[in-house]
Design a protein that fits this description.
Elements: H1 4-7, H2 18-30, H3 36-47, H4 51-64, H5 69-81, H6 85-98, H7 103-115, H8 121-131, H9 136-148, H10 152-160, H11 170-182, H12 186-199, H13 204-216, H14 220-232, H15 238-250, H16 254-267, H17 272-284, H18 288-301, H19 306-318, H20 322-335, H21 342-354, H22 358-374, H23 379-390, H24 399-403
Helix pairs in contact: 2-5, 2-7, 3-4, 4-5, 5-6, 5-7, 6-7, 7-8, 8-9, 9-10, 9-11, 10-11, 11-12, 12-13, 13-14, 13-15, 14-15, 15-16, 16-17, 17-18, 17-19, 18-19, 19-20, 19-21, 20-21, 22-23
């Protein structure tokens, strides 16, 4: 359950307020080059969103002052407000050709690029900060790009220079917390996630972020306290439910852990990994029949997933239904025949049936090690190796599901 996953689907914070950032600067600067009355007319029209009239005034001014960079930047603002992004971009870039350091044009161009998450915004943001080092909005926007690029060291520095505005932007708080956590600053990350959760109580991802870092730091009861209101009011997604299941499992509450895992599977019926994780949970707690019932549902929705047949085969073996176990292992072998490991799985079932045969097991382990040299990332081979080793030590029950990256 990586923290990074959610940030990739969150809209950039700056889109929501960058227009105000742009306007507040532009109208002050333009007063330095145009007559006060003319500026006042444009300002009044734009604040009232009378962009057509503002454009008429601007076009008239440009007919006599076509090289005025500020006029072109202001025209870009008016066009942007009208939703004419292509023409606005043309105006901003023309303004920058006339004056590469026109802050209003730089900000306008950044705004349009940011709406498309276009990385060409990044060098423009650096230029803005070279001209205006204390621009908190530019710092925040740049930090978001840096976080997405995995450059958390720089992102943290820029987030810290964003001022109090970041506290009103949940996407930025989430990204800041992720970077702090990935950089090892768990304490401050927890504080940021608490601020996010408390400040935006209706945002599910805010609860998830806080609960996840509490879970990672082994504060399982606190994590559950954060998640329970979301689960109770029916807003929990599979990530929330799986995190709650893991927290319940960590405190030894198997009944609730199984219930949460089952609900997560119901919400995402075609996610093979969830069925295999449920099988592992059932193996850990000897709830073999419950595991088989759920894996049956998984096979119904994912009939070509070989890992599900392996999971069910092991569950059958634990119930001493060895014929069914061998049949499932054979199906898994057929579905993934290029690695030809079903025969080993059948041998594992036979070992469980006829008690442990050390000589036979050692020979199989030797063969599997050879296979792993050829297929080092094989889920199936790791499953079989782990199962054979677990027979030597019962404390490693269901190790294969923890070791393997289960296939879809």
């Amino acid at each position: 359950m990586p923290l990074q996953r959610r940030i990739t689907v969150i809209a950039m914070t700056a889109r929501r307020y960058v227009a105000l950032w742009l306007m507040s600067f532009a109208l002050v600067v333009f007063g330095q080059s145009l007559t006060p009355s003319y500026v006042h007319k444009i300002e009044s029209l734009l604040h009232r969103r009378h962009t057509a009239e503002a454009l008429q005034l601007l076009n008239h001014a440009l007919s006599s002052s076509p090289a005025n960079s500020n006029l072109w930047a202001l025209k870009g603002i008016a066009l942007s407000m009208r939703g004419n992004e292509a023409s606005a971009s043309t105006a901003f870039r023309h303004a920058l050709r006339l004056n590469p350091n026109n802050l209003a044009a730089l900000r306008g161009d950044v705004q349009l690029l940011d709406q498309k998450r276009d990385r060409r915004a990044v060098p423009l943001l650096h230029r803005i900060l070279s001209l205006s080092p204390h621009d908190s909005t530019a710092h925040e926007m740049l930090a978001l790009y840096e976080q997405r690029d995995g450059n958390c060291k720089s992102a943290i520095l820029n987030f810290r220079q964003s001022g109090e505005a970041i506290n009103h932007h949940p996407e930025s708080l989430a990204a800041f917390g992720v970077c702090l956590d990935s950089s090892g600053n768990t304490r401050e990350a927890t504080s940021i996630f608490e601020k996010l959760s408390n400040g935006f109580p209706r945002l599910v991802f805010a609860k998830y972020d806080l609960a996840l870092i509490l879970y990672k730091t082994q504060h399982y009861h606190r994590a559950l306290n954060v998640l329970q209101p979301v689960i109770k009011d029916g807003r929990a997604n599979p990530e929330i439910l799986n995190l709650a299941s893991s927290a319940y499992e960590a405190i030894g509450d198997t009944r609730h852990a199984v219930a949460m895992k089952r609900e997560a599977i119901v919400q995402e019926r075609k996610d093979v990994n969830r069925y295999n994780t449920f099988a592992r949970l059932c193996l850990n707690h000897k709830s073999y029949k419950a595991g088989i019932d759920m894996v049956n549902a998984g096979i119904h929705f994912n009939p070509q997933a070989s890992s599900l047949y392996l999971s069910r085969g092991l569950l059958y073996a634990k119930l001493s239904e060895f014929g069914k176990a061998q049949a499932d292992f054979a199906i898994a072998d057929r579905l993934n025949s290029r690695q030809s490991v079903g025969s080993y799985a059948i041998d594992v079932a036979e070992l469980e049936k006829f008690h442990f045969d050390g000589k036979h097991s050692n020979a199989m382990v030797k063969e599997l090690r050879q296979q792993l040299k050829t297929y080092p990332n094989s889920y199936l081979l790791h499953f079989l190796m782990a199962k054979l080793l677990s027979m030597q030590s019962s404390s490693h029950e269901a190790l294969y599901l923890k070791r393997a990256q289960l296939e879809a």
